[in-house]
What we know:
- With 129 residues, chain A is an alpha/beta fold.
- Helix content of chain A is 42%, strand content 19%.
- Chain A has helices spanning 11-22, 34-43, 60-69, 87-96, 108-119, and strands at 3-7, 27-31, 48-52, 78-82, 100-103.
- The interface between A and C is medium-sized, with 22 and 25 residues.
Amino acid sequence: xxxxxxxxxxxxxxxxxxxxxxxxxxxxxxxxxxxxxxxxxxxxxxxxxxxxxxxxxxxxxxxxxxxxxxxxxxxxxxxxxxxxxxxxxxxxxxxxxxxxxxxxxxxxxxxxxxxxxxxxxxxxxxxxx
Amino acid sequence: xxxxxxxxxxxxxxxxxxxxxxxxxxxxxxxxxxxxxxxxxxxxxxxxxxxxxxxxxxxxxxxxxxxxxxxxxxxxxxxxxxxxxxxxxxxxxxxxxxxxxxxxxxxxxxxxxxxxxxxxxxxxxxxxxxxxxxxxxxxxxxxxxxxxxxxxxxxxxxxxxxxxxxxxxxxxxxxxxxxxxxxxxxxxxxxxxxxxxxxxxxxxxxxxxxxxxxxxxxxxxxxxxxxxxxxxxxxxxxxxxxxxxxxxxxxxxx
Amino acid sequence: xxxxxxxxxxxxxxxxxxxxxxxxxxxxxxxxxxxxxxxxxxxxxxxxxxxxxxxxxxxxxxxxxxxxxxxxxxxxxxxxxxxxxxxxxxxxxxxxxxxxxxxxxxxxxxxxxxxxxxxxxxxxxxxxxxxxxxxxxxxxxxxxxxxxxxxxxxxxxxxxxxxxxxxxxxxxxxxxxxxxxxxxxxxxxxxxxxxxxxxxxxxx
Lengths: 129, 254, 204
């Protein structure tokens, strides 16, 4: 079973992503900011990270920077989720270490498709969240 | 966070707390815990959920981390005979600082190469008095190996064992609280601060103040050890997280 | 035994009350290249309740630990009116500074509500979004009503979703009908409908 970590300070967002991903058989763990995310990655293994950009204590860019600097964690695929749709913001996210970038609010099908691709699971028809 | 069997106890305790608080729904109770000005329901909940056991060698994995990972890093830039300063706060009745002292003497290969100063503080003068006496029941030593106990304690009757005088004299007990850490730099900053199971009792602002104070009171590269279920992740981003084989600890920027 | 008992003085409050530190020494310390000097000066400002100067210092301070001390100090001074200028940093490109300010403002209590409420009609989508996040932590009985108004009128879907989050925790049953209409405001975003469903369920 693939394991995905969702890092977002909004409990509703986390709930939504969890619903979408559990519907396709993914195991989901949550963290409310980048610091908590790093701690969970240090103690559990994951196939993919979904990380929001704007969070207290440690934002998405800083989180990615620390992730990519750490010898053990740097290979983890990470999708950044942000309200910003502009090209400059996408480029900034990729430069910070994101493998992919999704604009919020996120559509369930888009989330599942990208998660499936990056976590290496075969794409199923998602049951609607 | 809680296993199935513990979940039953969690549910039961929360139900009782809700009854005590006179809440008509979980939502109402939850809001009161988050937003009450005096934090009374939060305090009551924390008390109901935490088990107050005092014994030596509690959270042994952190003592192992101290010896195996933290101290080797702390002393790397030091010379023989230099001082390493450790602070245990709140020290309560003294089990923690004595545990640190004993564990270092027994397990740290380099213990004779440096001067180790252990300061232990609490705001409660009664517990400090007990701490200075260093006398505990047999039960408090249940996690201390028998041979270690024989070396560092003497039986004084009534099932009580007292920490030997040399060890009692080597820990400095002071009346202070965690916020005093920020003034520590004027008197020599700490290499390591043990602040375990205190911050869970604090509100958000106090936790923040404590984190700021600890940061100020540490040497660059100094370490903080929190309690088993505690994390800086909801308190402060000032510290770097360090994962060692035995524990995750927090470090001030070197 | 290598354990040595320190004879050094115990850490206590710094010698001398805050007003004994003279103005020139304080100004020098605030501009010192040494982080600890600046942090100590910030603590003196806090003891004196000098919120204006703390706020000003934040604009020139880059070190995270001193920024944190400044912001903790502002919160401790309990003067929301004087703290209000901090909210200019919601527009800052410096993510760390912006987040640090947001976190501190959330600890200020409901005295900061008038300022936050004002920002909820700011033309910048991000400023409104950050303000909604701050509102989440403001302990005022008016917060849910303000959140509902935002959910019903804001033209940015993420700001609305943030407001709906507040209602999930603190909305009242008399808001149910109005809240139900929010999902229909952005039919192309099923996430909003999800958030409204969750909120309605939690309000009961």
